[in-house]
Specification:
Layout: H1 3-12, H2 14-24, H3 33-46, E1 53-59, E2 62-68, E3 72-78, H4 83-95, E4 102-108, H5 113-129, E5 138-142
Parallel strand pairs: 3-4, 4-5
Antiparallel strand pairs: 1-2, 2-3
């Protein structure tokens, strides 16, 4: 990554760079959430090679699957298909209220349509409540 891309990530639009990378990510042979997490972690390590990518990040109450450059949390959810899984995700997102940066929820596997809709509506409400400037606080990407 050239110095312009480093500056772009650090000061301008890290969310666009990470969202673009996640959209280009093509997981292969993954069945479990940990396999998807490992695949995404390895992919992101190659994408912005000079940006820190941390797996199983923990700080205070924040426990995230992946953190990119201390700016973006990535929470992976494989087979979000039960109310119990959705409630657990809501608990995780609530714990992320302490986080100053953005949160990407990446859905893999089979996602229940109603739960996806509820998650999208939750993200829209949080995004309208938070003031991060031009960027949304919570971004949902389905793979």
């Amino acid at each position: 990554m050239g110095w312009i891309q480093k500056l772009r990530f650090r000061f301008f639009d890290p969310d666009d760079m990470v969202a673009s990378a996640i959209r280009r990510w093509r997981p292969r042979g993954c069945d479990a959430e940990k396999e998807y997490e490992k695949s995404l972690y390895e992919f992101l390590h190659k994408e912005p090679p000079d940006i820190q990518v941390t797996k199983q990040f923990a700080r205070g109450r924040v426990r995230a699957d992946v953190v990119v450059g201390d700016k973006i949390i990535i929470e992976l959810k494989n087979n979000l298909d039960t109310a119990a899984k959705y409630q657990r995700l809501m608990g995780q997102l609530t714990a992320y209220d302490e986080w100053d940066g953005q949160i990407f929820v990446v859905l893999t596997g089979n996602t229940d349509a109603n739960l996806r809709k509820q998650l999208t509506q939750y993200a829209e409400r949080k995004n309208s409540d938070d003031d991060l400037g031009q960027s949304d606080r919570i971004i949902v990407i389905e793979k």
